[in-house]
Structures are given as C-alpha cells and as structure tokens.
Design goal:
By secondary structure, this protein is of the alpha/beta class. An eight-stranded parallel β-barrel has the order 1-2-3-4-5-6-7-8, surrounded by six helices. α2 links the parallel β2 and β3. The longest helix is centred in the C-terminal third of the chain and has 19 residues.
C-alpha cells in the first residue's frame, strides 16, 4: 500500500503571522491523522514562522520553488542548500504557474529537480496537460513526455524522494476538476511511464498525487481511486476546516 500524501500549496498567500495562525488552527483538526503525510508548502518568508508553529505536530513544511544553481548571480532566487539549512523537507518544482508565468521548461524543471534531490530534499514534481491537449486527445503523450524529460538522469534511488503531482492545467484555479476516472487514468499513464523508465517495483512505490481543484467536496472520491495517492491542494489548503476534511478523506 502506498502512503497517501496531502500537501497544501499556499502560492503567494499568507504573511508570517497569518501562516502561524492558520497552522495553529489546523493542528488540532489533523492531530492523530497519521495514516498519511501532511505538508504545507509555503512562501519563503513564511518558512521560519511555519516551522515554529508546526513544531511537535504531524505537519511538515516545504517550499514552493528552488533554483538549480548552488549559488550565484540569480537575484531573487533561493538555492537548495538555503532551503536545506532552513530545515525544509519538501519543495514543489514545475508547478504550472511557474511554467506559465515564469518561463519554466521541462529542461529547467529537470535541473531544479536534480539540484533539490542532490541536496537531500524531497521533490513534489508537477506536470499536466493544458485544455487544448486534453481536447485533442493527446493527454497521455504529453504527460508521458513530461515525466521522461523532468526525470532525465534521476536515478532509481533518487526517485524514492520524488512525489509526482498530476495537475491538469485547465483545472487549476478554474473550479474545474478532472473526473475521478480521468484523474485515475492519467495517474496510471504516469505510473506506466515510470515502470518503463525504472521498472515495475519503482512504479508501484511512487506516490502520484492529483492536483487541480481538489477540495473538501470531491476529495474522498478522487482519493478512492487506485492510482491517486494524495492531493496537492491549492485554495482549500488556506482553510483549516476544508484542509482537514481532505486529510480525513485520505485516512
């Protein structure tokens, strides 16, 4: 049985004081829910406050992005070593908003992924098709290609520290959601691609989340599917009660 992973992606929300308040509100609602991993991936300025608030709880703290260079003239960027020294466990890489607004490509996603893994971080690797690709029936080809490119030169040992988040771009922040059957089918395509790259055992072990407007109302049905091992949660992760309902659904 793969362990479920519920991760909140706060995006550009929450000041440090607001982060502390949200985690304090969330902690009692998810206390004792130990059948899944619970993660909040927060803006860089919130990391310290979030870690202090989450200390002693079952909530882990991650970051939302990382640069591929260890240091250098990259104004405004954060290195894997910086995150590691901050005590971060996880980092999101390749979110569609990074690809859409900030020029991320499969090549740079791959570089960031390798840098994070080499620094000892766990990676939540995002991929997924846009609406036109879904409509034209090439979703399987797109997510398979992204999986191969984003994991280029990642070893099977390193893969143990990778979570894949399937995020249909057309469902992020739109209120639209892939049907449970669509989510399960596409997560299965990703798993089959991993099997071809790394073997059946690695494919069976890897955690594949669904992202794309998972919320309190639809989480249970999505999480019931064979190939859906958790969720990367956007807006619902900013509401303690809604987030706790999703965590409960993963139990």
């Amino acid at each position: 049985m793969r362990r479920k992973v519920i991760a909140g992606n706060w995006k550009m929300n929450m000041t440090p004081s607001q982060a502390k308040a949200l985690i304090e509100e969330t902690k009692p609602l998810v206390a004792g829910k130990d059948n899944c991993d619970i993660i909040f991936c927060v803006p860089f300025v919130d990391i310290h406050a979030a870690q202090e608030a989450a200390a002693g709880s079952n909530i882990k703290i991650g970051a939302e992005n990382v640069h591929f260079a260890p240091k250098g003239a990259y104004t405004g960027e954060i290195s894997a070593e910086m995150l590691k020294e901050c005590g971060v466990d996880y980092v999101i890489i390749g979110h569609s908003e990074r690809r859409q607004y900030f020029g991320e490509t499969d090549e740079t996603v791959n570089l960031r992924t390798k840098a994070a893994l080499e620094a000892g971080l766990k990676v939540i690797l995002c991929l997924g098709e846009v609406k036109e690709e879904r409509v034209n029936g090439i979703t399987d080809e797109v997510v398979s290609m992204q999986t191969k490119l984003d994991l280029k030169d990642v070893t099977v040992d390193q893969l143990a520290n990778v979570i894949i988040a399937y995020e249909p771009v057309w469902a992020i922040g739109t209120g639209l959601t892939a049907t449970p059957e669509q989510a399960d089918e596409t997560c299965g395509v990703i798993r089959n691609t991993i099997a071809k790259m790394y073997g059946a055992e690695a494919a069976e072990k890897i955690v594949i989340q669904y992202g794309g407007s998972m919320n309190a109302a639809n989480a249970a049905e999505l999480l019931s599917k064979e190939n859906v091992d958790g969720g990367l949660i956007g807006g619902a992760s900013l509401k303690a009660k809604d987030f706790s309902i999703i965590v409960n659904a993963a139990q």
